[in-house]
Amino acid sequence: MDLKLQTPSSVGNTHIDNFRSDVLEGLQSYPKKLSSKYFYDRVGDRLFQKIMHMPDYYLTRCELDIFKNKTAELAQLIIPENEPFDLIELGAGDALKSTYLLKYLVKYKHEFTYMPIDISGNILSVLKEKLNNQLPDLSVTTLEGDYFEMLRKAASLSDRKKVILFLGSNIGNMSIEEAQLFCSHLNRNLNSGDRLLIGFDLKKNPHTILNAYNDEEGITAAFNLNLLDLINRDLNGSFNLKQFQHYQTYDPITGACRSFLISLQKQDVIIGNTTITFEENEWIDMEISQKFSPEEIRELSRKSDFKMIGEIRDSKNWFIDSVWETK
Q1: DSSP 3-state of 316
Q2: What region does 10 belong to: left with phi over 0, alpha with psi -120 to 50, or beta?
Q3: Taking each helix axis from N to C terminus, what angle separates 147-157 and 176-188, rounded to the nearest 10 degrees?
Q4: What are the residues whose beta carbons fall under 8 Å from the beta carbon of 156, sequence distance 6 or more?
Q5: Residue 14: Cβ within 10 Å count
């Protein structure tokens, strides 16, 4: 649910063109699909903040438990020995969890620059103002754009060791196969000895997982439906949001938790000059929130050519922050 690679309303014409291309390609395929990387405009950001504070949405609290109560252990695993480094957070958002780590590193006078990457310029500006107020001695360089494009930019800014944070089970917004491709690509954008801290939501009681994504208040439904509204606003779309219904599933065998929007009637939706036909009960595949076993995490590390050097679990044993190193 947390992956933030594009935010059409906050960026320029090139991203709008990419947004249009991806939307039309996805809605003209079978089954119809929209990419969760486009969820996070200003409305989406606000709705996701509400989701993170829902009683049943345990993910944020589990990883926050690690960052708040096991900060020293985290720091010991991730920081290079006796040398300055760049701490780069992919999809930083409001840095709710990583702020605990930042405060620890500043307190103990580690020499580093914090580089939050996010496609949402709105979120980055809010974050930088917050950090300037809370940690005036912290060196911050914000990077607005795509993960890999901004990683290359970060590499051009300094030749320090890189420590990458990929939190919130963002990796879960990909299938197992996509996650392997992503981690392999990430590895190729790092140098030997760079480190990656990556958060994984573990497989657990299926009811616990499903309740986290299927809230009675309808906030998750609104979060998904907002993408249709975004298409209306940015791409001159004609979606009637009342004619689509949120549907959530979880498969405890594969670990795939999936969100869909279901068309409640046969209807045509116009996007610019293109007409998309929906049959009654036809679905749009909106996102996946993949859950992992410890064995699958180790396998992912191995297949993407990282060396796992440690892991830290929350107090409920529901979540793992795993630390990998490039060979």
Answers
A1: coil
A2: alpha
A3: 20
A4: none
A5: 8
CA distances from 142 to 89, 95, 123, 131, 145 (A): 10, 12, 10, 11, 10
Distance CA 250, CA 56 (A): 15
Residues near 217 by Cβ (< 8 Å), separated by ≥ 6? Answer: 54
Asked if 99 and 132 count as a contact pair (C-beta separation under 8 A), the reply is no
Cβ(271)–Cβ(224) under 8 Å?
no
Regarding beta strands 319-326 and 195-201, do their DSSP bridges make them parallel or antiparallel, or are they unpaired?
Answer: antiparallel
As a whole number, the mean pLDDT across the chain is 93
Structure tokens at 217: 């208040």
Farthest CA pair distance, the chain: 64
DSSP conformational letter for 170: G
Spatial separation of the C-alpha atoms in residues 71 and 79, rounded to whole Å:
12
List the one residue out of 81, 135, 146 whose CA is nearest residue 113.
Answer: 135
CB 286 within 8 A of CB 263: no
Cα–Cα distance measured from residue 14 to residue 4, given in angstroms and rounded to the nearest whole number: 17
What is the strand order of the sheet 283-290 is part of? 32-33, 283-290, 256-263, 244-251
Q: What is the pLDDT of residues 116-149, one digit of tens each?
A: 999 878 889 999 999 999 999 999 999 998 899 9
Q: pTM value?
A: 0.89
- The two structure tokens encoding residue 167: 């939190």
Q: Which residues pair with 310 in a beta bridge?
A: 323
